[in-house]
Amino acid sequence: MVLNTVSRSLHDLGLAAWFGGTLANAVALNRAAGQTRRLSDAGAVTNSGWNAWTPVNAAAIGAHLAGSVGQLLGNRGRVAGQAGVGTMSLVKTGLTVGALGASGYARLLGKKVAEHGNVPVEDGTTPSEMTPEPVAKAQRQLTALQWVVPAVTGALVVVSAFAGEQQRPRSVIRGLAHRLT
Question: How many folded domains does the chain comprise?
């Protein structure tokens, strides 16, 4: 029981931070950086914010992955025996891989932007006319990508809620009966 509580907590808290932090940065930090007085300061503010978030995000992702493995091990009997649980697990795994890929790619693009230091930009994801092309290209990609990570991790939250519903006694009995017939 304690192991399941720990793994669920790691899974849920890690996912909550991963989703919430990336959503907050997309909604607030990237836009707020454009409120600086000088265009070159906007890039510095954005870089500073995302660089501060990176280790927290990495810890959140690590906690989520550790919790996911713990939940999978703790529920391996249900995954194998209850109809629908294996499919849900595969969907969660696919979404997790997608979120990891999007997060990793966003970090690589963010590093490209940060390598150029205090370049003039409109905000965290919008280049100005004076933005060097490598930074502008990375920012244009980040404009869409900043929404992909919270969208995919948000989908993980929804699938996790569905997984919780599959653990209700009525669902377990129905799923096991379906598997037997």
Answer: 1
What's the token pair of residue 92?
Answer: 């969660």
Q: List, as one string, the DSSP characters of the chain.
A: -HHHHHHHHHHHHHHHHHHHHHHHIIIIIHHHGGGSSSHHHHHHHHHHHHHHHHHHHHHHHHHHHHHHHHHHHHTHHHHHHSTTHHHHHHHHHHHHHHHHHHHHHHHHHHHHHHHT-S--EEETTEE-TTS-HHHHHHHHHHHHHHHHHHHHHHHHHHHHHHHHHHTSHHHHHHHHHHHH-
**pLDDT number for residue 38:** 81
Q: Show the low-confidence residues of the chain (pLDDT under 50).
A: none
Q: How far apart are CA 141 and CA 136, in angstroms?
A: 9
Residue 83's pLDDT is what?
Answer: 87
Integer Cα distance of 46 and 73 in angstroms: 39
pLDDT in tens, 123-136: 888 999 999 999 99
User: Does the pTM exceed 0.85?
Assistant: yes
The boundaries of the domain holding residue 116 are 2-180
CB burial readout 35-73, b (16+ within 10 A) else e: ebeebbbbbbbbbebbeebeeebeebbebbbebbebbee
Q: Is 103 exposed, middle or buried (0-12, 13-18, 19+ CB in 10 A)?
A: buried
